[in-house]
Specification:
4-stranded antiparallel β-sheet, mainly beta
């Protein structure tokens, strides 16, 4: 993303583990020479570390996915702008997120991508995976919608935006791992529960999801 008016302003968006969110212009994080000390990117608190950090355009749609399997949407420009040292604003003040919902993933998508062959790939703690067309998220109601039907005791781990030709890696807390091509997972409707991506025992759970 650049700062072309047609593309919007390039900003850095980040959230904390306790659900605070903010954005700041990319220009805030100026380039430094080798050996530079860097600068504070956020007022990090020991009890509330930064959880998600990425660059997006103010024109992008920000999809917010929670641990209980719900999805919400807002424009990146609706995320409050704050200085690098500021904590930001609680997401519960921007979206109707319940107390038992934790932010599991954020996806910034260009408005045009909802019309292209793009997919959202979901993974849960109990090893389920699901692939759904991004187009199904083109118009999310303000109060959110169910995007993954979770079994009792399960939680959404993460979501990735793909082009349909990515490899997927799932890794568990106990050190088990699996890699597969996303074509092995057929596209499903938005409220489908998904299929088994990796088998985990009662004591284990999926801790890492990556696409490449």
């Amino acid at each position: 993303h650049g700062d072309d008016p047609m593309c919007g302003e390039a900003v850095v968006v980040h959230t904390t583990r306790n659900g605070y969110i903010k954005r700041a212009p990319v220009s805030t994080y100026r380039a430094q020479r080798r050996g530079g000390r860097g600068r504070r990117g956020a007022a990090v608190r020991d009890e509330d570390p930064v959880e998600h950090l990425f660059v997006a355009s103010t024109h992008d749609v920000l999809l917010v996915f929670t641990s209980v399997g719900k999805a919400y949407a807002l424009r990146v420009h609706e995320v409050p702008e704050a200085s690098p040292s500021a904590r930001g604003k609680a997401i519960v003040n921007l979206l109707p997120v319940a107390q038992d919902e934790k932010i599991a993933a954020l996806i910034a998508a260009k408005p045009t991508e909802f019309e292209e062959p793009r997919f959202l790939l979901f993974a849960t703690r109990r090893g389920k995976v699901k692939k759904t067309a991004l187009a199904e998220y083109a118009s999310i109601r303000s109060n959110g919608l169910i995007d993954v039907a979770l079994e009792e005791g399960d939680a959404l781990l993460g979501v990735r935006l793909t082009d349909g030709d990515s490899h997927v890696f799932l890794g568990t807390h106990a050190g088990m791992g699996i890699r597969f091509h996303e074509s092995d997972v057929r596209p499903m409707g938005r409220v489908a529960a998904g299929v088994r991506g990796i088998a985990v025992n009662a004591e284990d759970f999926v801790e890492v999801m990556a696409t490449f």
